[in-house]
Automatic annotation (TrEMBL), chains A, B:
GO MF assignments: 3'-5'-DNA exonuclease activity; manganese ion binding; single-stranded DNA endodeoxyribonuclease activity
Similarity comment: Belongs to the MRE11/RAD32 family.
Biased composition (Acidic residues): 586-595, 630-648
Protein name: Double-strand break repair protein
Compositional bias annotation for Basic and acidic residues: 540-549
Active site residues of this protein: H141 (proton donor)
Keywords annotated in UniProt: Chromosome, DNA damage, DNA repair, Endonuclease, Exonuclease, Hydrolase, Manganese, Meiosis, Metal-binding, Nuclease, Nucleus
GO cellular component, as recorded: Mre11 complex; site of double-strand break
Main location: nucleus
InterPro entries cross-referenced by the UniProt entry: Calcineurin-like_PHP (IPR004843), Metallo-depent_PP-like (IPR029052), Mre11 (IPR003701), Mre11_capping_dom (IPR038487), Mre11_DNA-bd (IPR007281), Mre11_N (IPR041796)
Pfam families, alphabetized: Metallophos (PF00149), Mre11_DNA_bind (PF04152)
Required co-factors: Mn(2+)
Biased composition (Basic residues): 550-560, 614-625
């Protein structure tokens, strides 16, 4: 990205003196994964309980708004229970008479639902009495899917339609083939002011890491910023892999624009909420981490926090707040062969081994319960109510290298029924070599991988059966006419995103393509039809292969198509570039050719509504909202710091492939 | 039901002179079936378009509120698109500054969500600026399902949590075994006042017809009414079969209490919205009918209407309003053998037959288009905008009795691509005898039956495969230990209600029961275990059979359990009595023994909140809402007109069966 903006190093993240009238108070949290294990008799309500705690903290700390960085929901299609509970909690804790003190300076209709009149920002709606606005981007779990009349939608869209959440960073709806090729990523900020403090919120919902990486490298990420951008405190929210998982499967920390002051990094579950400076960059990164452990991996055992983020002018301060409702979780790794020596027992004496493992688990339970007691004691000191104890999560990783046979871990766990929350999977066995792989899986999205060690037998079973079902279903169709190319992707969509129409959509589109092909071959009699079909189908296949390399794809079906096979990564995106694998390390010298304006469609509504905005606001009729004069409320016009000549029409690039890009 | 209340015949349904200040204006509609065929490229948006029209009519006719009688949603778990669109439309058209002129006299917290503080009636929430409240009961399509932390939930609960709908008539959450036995149906009204007019809304969400029938006959339907009930205009909303489908598979028109003035009958799709008197009863029945055709049956071809219902004191008037966005639909039945004689062609000359059928379909298309033009013309006369024409729905039922072979109806339909909205199923063939059955099916819920002639091949396929999937899944479990009894029900829940947990719930509960049984048999060694299990399992089976006859069942799993096999009827209920079939025509002489108070739990919250209610209302802070003095706002206390001694404790009836009831 460009080096426009100042190169001065930002001040250390503390506020010298916080002046209430000029200090924004923000509750920062992310990856709440509501609905995780919701059917579990013990842990079923963990995610919702902690989300409730977070909302209560927002009220207690009298924040101006709540900021979330994705994966509010664990399932792409949250259960009715989840949606109901989240709706109820948001209505209960974020609506009310508390006056809103942050003035919205950007267009309240930027990103609003096309079909409806209400604004995108809930507290700009005179019919809603909002006390604490919630701003969020989507994550890889709750990203937009489908191609209905309103385009791809996610669970946040529903909450946004009911006025309970302000959904940001949904930049990525391919509206047409042309769009899909040229869109890049355009980030239009939510601009807020409190007293002298000006805050720009730049949200980028999750996209596939490879694509994000590519867009950043090829200057196609356009942040639209006020001209006096350096007088603003700029927060960039994103939800991507930060830990490296092979070529381009993560986003480098140093790749963001120098105008950014703070990057809020969602998706990674380890709590690294205390801001960390980035070498050679003027911004800090805060990684709040998830508010619930969705895998029993090391990172998840770090104590979970949210934070009170205070911003005054260009200074900020982050006060971590430990979460009290999170289940205590401790894990340990033992290497049996070593243990056997130290404690002197026979590796193949199962009774002895099991006796040893039980002693370890008991030790871990005590340790976990102590964690809980200490945390509780601290809170009580600070004047909070004590909480009743929770069963802890305990995980013992056993390196069984050299051991011929191990006893059944599930039976082993039964012994701890009623003392731990996860008796079924307290033990995991592995051999030395497997360690790296399995830990990689858990860092990523374990819930979505069938090989996932964390999955219960039944979960795996049902997933497998789902795929069987889909394959059967497809078998029943005229499959010999269809390319297999997009099929496995579609199947994955069906299984992972619970998108029951992914298949149908793919089949329909593929068939349409075939029909067109057949027609192109003019009149054919029944006899020749088969040959024609085969011919067309091959052609179709080649095109698919091409497309999934260039990322070029059509509306809707693209969601199912242009993703790779890595079932660990649930992030789906319709325009990604396959830059890894098969000698595809592309030469990007002529990036500029790729740097094209966003669809003018995007800018049009903004202009249109600029004048309308105040009108929308007029009816607020002194309900104690927004302590600001309305003449200050005209919408700020933005400039792209990436691309000056953005009003040029898009080049008519009909079919661009990596090869083409290199050759030109 | 009792004959308490007056026996005078009500006035003819016209208002002599409507005094605006004392006249309630209500938009009456039902069975919007939003989401029906939502994936259909032509008809996909029909249901939502018409729902939008209905909301616009409510605004245009300046109504005090909207009244719906169930099946707002077609799918029990509406797609994200549906939920999003309905949420958006409700927010857009029902929120706003129009002052609410109907005062709520009943407890605003009656039926509120237990976990949250906001009231059950959205316009009592000071944080929402409601212009047109929407009141609705659930239907058989969108009825409560599941047994999550909040109990059974339906789509209306989600809309209610977001404050967009006032969900009434959810009386039926079995809280315990005892409950399930003794609950009956308790109807607590929403009581409204406008000037001198007092209106009681008595909502009864859909329950299985057999159960409703039984509850009515055995005096277990308790309407809680103000003491001066005769000064109120009382509306009963229900969603049941009105057309008879065999013993107790419908609800007789004459079975309701004489205090009722108007019955609003949902579920039946034929428009019979003009109020009809009931022989020997003082009340009228209005059957608005669906706002979309969900089957191509005769009843659905009647022009669709909603109505403006005006009520002043004890008088009312119903003004039907034709719906303009409904697709014109005509159907015709031809008997080929007769046609062959009249038009003199050979029954087995396929070309001639097909030529004849095409001429008939063409005639129907003209007829349908004329319908549309006339409707449009009428509207334009009344000063409305003309609408662009829609492709019509056309159905030709062909009696093929005596014809050996017919050509493929789908290929036949292709000829009409672009001229009708349903080319794929314009023709249905049947033989004389099948007529009655198939028409029964279509009157009922065709979408849920796999035999349903209206289902597309793919739809059937997927349903069948779903069931296969479930069976496979179960096969993988320790099935030999489980009773088959509840299984098929659970499977049906899975398929029809998209309740992916029905199976799991059933299995878990059944297994729990088994464990208990085994423990009851004290210490057993591995050897005997099998015998014990067999024994227990048989016992378990008998109990299940018993339960499904008596309707006694446990929380949650009941939803899956106590329903019969009739896949035509989607109405699910946990407490129904199987009074039909197998010599079970029970003697109800001692009904009184069955007439027991509702769980005291139900009355408790009411008391508790009576005093709280005004407090909740205080913060309304003159936003022009509710033009009424708050001292009038104390909650009216109700009496059950069914049951005077309702404060008696519930009789400790441990396990009541029909037999027991008869013997005593």
């Amino acid at each position: 990205m460009s080096d426009a903006g100042r190169d001065s190093v930002p001040p250390a993240p503390t506020l010298r003196h916080a002046d209430p009238d000029n200090t924004m108070r923000i509750l920062l949290a992310t990856d709440n994964h509501i609905g995780y294990l919701e059917r579990d008799p013990i842990r079923g309500q963990d995610s919702i309980n902690t989300f409730k705690e977070i909302l209560q903290l927002a009220v207690k700390h009298d924040v101006d708004f709540i900021l979330l960085a994705g994966d509010l929901f664990h399932e792409n299609r949250p259960s009715r229970d989840c949606l109901y509970q989240v709706t109820g909690l948001l209505r209960q804790y974020t609506m009310g008479d508390k006056p809103i003190q942050v003035e919205l300076l950007s267009d309240p209709n930027e990103g609003k639902a096309a079909s409806y009149d209400f604004p995108a920002i809930n507290y700009e709606d005179p019919n809603l009495n909002v006390a604490i606005p919630v701003f969020s981007i989507h994550g890889n779990h709750d990203d937009p899917q489908g191609a209905g009349p309103e385009g791809a939608l996610c669970a946040l869209d529903v909450l946004s339609a009911s006025g309970l959440i302000n959904y940001m960073g949904k930049f990525d709806l391919p509206l047409s083939e042309a769009d899909a090729q040229t869109a890049g990523i355009a980030i239009r900020p939510v601009l807020l002011r409190k007293g002298t403090t000006h805050l720009g919120l730049y949200g980028v919902g999750n996209v596939k890491d490879q694509r994000m990486h590519f867009e950043l490298r090829s200057n196609r990420v356009r942040m639209y910023m006020p001209r006096n951008r350096d007088e603003w405190f700029n927060i960039l929210l994103l939800h991507q892999n930060r830990v490296r998982h092979g070529a381009q499967e993560s986003v480098p920390e140093g790749m963001f624009d120098d105008s950014v002051d703070l990057v809020v990094w969602g998706h990674e579950h380890d709590c690294r909420i205390v801001p960390e400076p980035v070498a050679g960059k003027p911004y800090y990164i805060t990684q709040p981490g998830s508010s619930i452990a969705t895998s029993l991996a090391d990172g998840e055992s770090i104590e979970k926090h949210v934070a009170l983020l205070q911003i005054q002018d260009k200074e900020f301060e982050m006060k971590p707040i430990p979460l009290r409702t999170v289940r205590p979780f401790v894990l340990e790794e033992v290497v049996l062969s070593e243990a056997a020596e130290e404690e002197d027992f026979e590796l193949n004496d199962q009774i002895a081994v099991s006796k040893f493992l039980k002693s370890r688990v008991n030790a871990l339970i005590d340790q976990a319960n102590k964690l809980w007691d200490d945390r509780n004691a601290r809170a009580v000191e600070d004047g909070d109510e004590p909480l009743p104890p929770m069963l802890p999560l305990v995980r013992l990783k056993v390196d069984t290298t050299g051991v011929s046979e191990m006893s059944n871990p599930i039976r082993f766990g039964q012994e701890f029924q009623g003392r731990i929350a996860n008796p079924r999977d307290v033990l995991v066995f592995h051999r030395a070599k497997r360690t790296t792989r399995s830990s990689k899986v858990t860092i990523d999205q374990p819930e979505l991988s069938i090989d996932d060690p964390e999955l219960s037998i039944t979960e795996k079973l049902s997933k497998v059966r789902m795929q069987t079902l889909v394959k059967e279903y497809l078998a029943a169709q005229e499959l010999q006419l269809l390319g297999e190319g997009g099929m496995s992707d579609a199947i994955q969509m069906f299984v992972e995103k619970d998108d029951s129409h992914a298949i149908q959509t793919h089949v329909t589109t593929a068939l349409k393509a075939l029909m067109k092909g057949v027609q192109a071959n003019g009149e054919v009699d029944e006899g020749d039809l088969d040959n024609v079909l085969v011919k067309v189908r091959e052609q179709h296949e080649t095109e698919y292969a091409e497309r999934s390399r260039t990322g070029k794809t059509a509306k809707g079906k693209g969601k199912g198509k242009a993703r790779d096979e890595d079932s660990d990564n649930a992030s789906v995106d319709s325009m990604m570039m396959e830059v890894d694998g098969g000698g595809s390390d592309v030469d990007f010298d002529n990036d500029e050719d790729l740097d094209v304006p966003p669809p003018t469609k995007k800018t049009a509504p903004k202009r249109a509504t600029t004048t309308k905005a105040p009108a929308k606001k007029a009816p607020v009729k002194g309900r104690g909202k927004k302590a600001v004069e309305s003449e200050e409320e005209e919408v700020i016009d933005l400039e792209s710091i990436e691309d000056e000549d953005e009003d040029e029409p898009a080049p008519k690039s009909t079919k661009r492939t990596n090869r083409a890009a290199v050759l030109r």
